[in-house]
């Protein structure tokens, strides 16, 4: 069978959620559409679709294959359109190089919804043929297993097998509500934190600690905090309600300080900067849409002299 036709049928089935509707969109019977999808599955050696209630939905492999097929078909349409009106070589090159298709992108919930969303909005305005499928998760993601094209990761070094692009770090600042500080007093140095309620954080069900250094000494907010939360938004609300001292990203903290709901503490200490990377799988073909997305994000968020490194 014609492979492009099989891809077209598969894409229509996924978009409509139905073999019969996908077949109708392609001008064929449901039985013929089934055979086209089965031809792809035989070629790949794995199922691409599964039934969920009355709908046909893609498997994990099917989701990734759908994105690639949609891009291939869009590029074929672009190439066919170049024949209209005798397009110039420059126009042809521009059309062929234009990123198209869907990108599945992962980021921590607060980073994605607050720090990155304005940049995503600008990216989509300038890339009308690309769609972003955001997976906002406060846990480590398996790019291959979950069909993620690119992931923003905060914290430690990326895992092996990933190409990592260094971005600007996320600045974190200690803060508390005026009410809490009036009751418990203002800490003057990191060692004073031992006498305060420090709000903890939890990532992937692991309780974290945060540390501020001063003059070669350090003080850690231990894991026995009276309240621990899995994301900064919850910690922010806990701090606003006077539950303790939190270590929050500057982009979340600034509006609350301006409104008088939170106060920066330990301002004499250098703010903590949590590293952030944009990663994708190593050793794989990088589509034009992924390459363009990475370049765009690094240009917007990357530090000077940023570089890509492959984790061994």
Automatic annotation (TrEMBL):
Keyword set includes Transcription regulation: yes
Family per similarity comment: Belongs to the LysR transcriptional regulatory family.
Protein name, as recorded: LysR family transcriptional regulator
Residues in HTH lysR-type domain copies: 1-59
Gene Ontology molecular functions: DNA-binding transcription factor activity; sequence-specific DNA binding
Pfam families: HTH_1, LysR_substrate
PROSITE patterns associated with the record: HTH_LYSR, PROKAR_LIPOPROTEIN
GO biological process: DNA-templated transcription
Keywords: DNA-binding, Transcription, Transcription regulation
Origin species: Pandoraea captiosa
């Amino acid at each position: 069978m014609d492979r492009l036709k099989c891809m077209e049928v598969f894409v229509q089935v996924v978009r409509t959620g139905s073999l019969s509707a996908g077949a109708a969109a392609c001008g064929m019977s449901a039985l013929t559409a089934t055979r086209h999808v089965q031809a792809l599955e035989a070629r790949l050696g794995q199922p691409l679709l599964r039934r969920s209630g009355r709908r046909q939905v893609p498997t994990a492999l099917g989701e990734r294959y759908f994105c690639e097929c949609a891009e291939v078909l869009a590029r074929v349409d672009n190439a066919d359109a170049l024949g209209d009106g005798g397009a110039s070589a420059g126009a042809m090159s521009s059309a062929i190089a234009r990123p198209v298709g869907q990108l599945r992108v992962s980021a921590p919930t607060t980073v994605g919804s607050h720090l990155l969303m304005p940049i995503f909005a600008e990216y989509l305005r300038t890339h009308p043929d690309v769609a972003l499928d955001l997976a906002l998760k406060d846990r480590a993601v398996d790019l291959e297993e979950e069909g993620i094209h690119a992931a923003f990761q905060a914290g430690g070094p990326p895992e092996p097998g990933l190409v990592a692009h260094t971005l600007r770090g996320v600045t974190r600042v200690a803060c508390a509500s005026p009410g809490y500080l009036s009751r418990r007093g203002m800490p003057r140095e990191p060692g004073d934190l031992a006498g305060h309620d420090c709000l903890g954080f939890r990532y992937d069900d692991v309780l974290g600690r945060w540390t501020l250094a001063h003059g070669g000494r350090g003080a850690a907010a231990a894991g026995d905090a009276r309240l621990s939360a899995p994301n900064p938004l919850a910690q922010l609300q806990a701090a606003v309600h006077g539950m303790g001292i939190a270590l929050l990203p500057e982009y979340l903290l600034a509006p609350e300080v301006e409104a008088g709901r939170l106060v920066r503490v330990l301002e004499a200490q250098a703010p903590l900067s949590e590293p952030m990377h944009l990663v994708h799988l190593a050793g794989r073909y990088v589509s034009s849409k992924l390459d363009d997305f990475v370049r765009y994000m690094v240009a917007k968020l990357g530090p000077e002299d940023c570089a890509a490194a492959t984790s061994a």
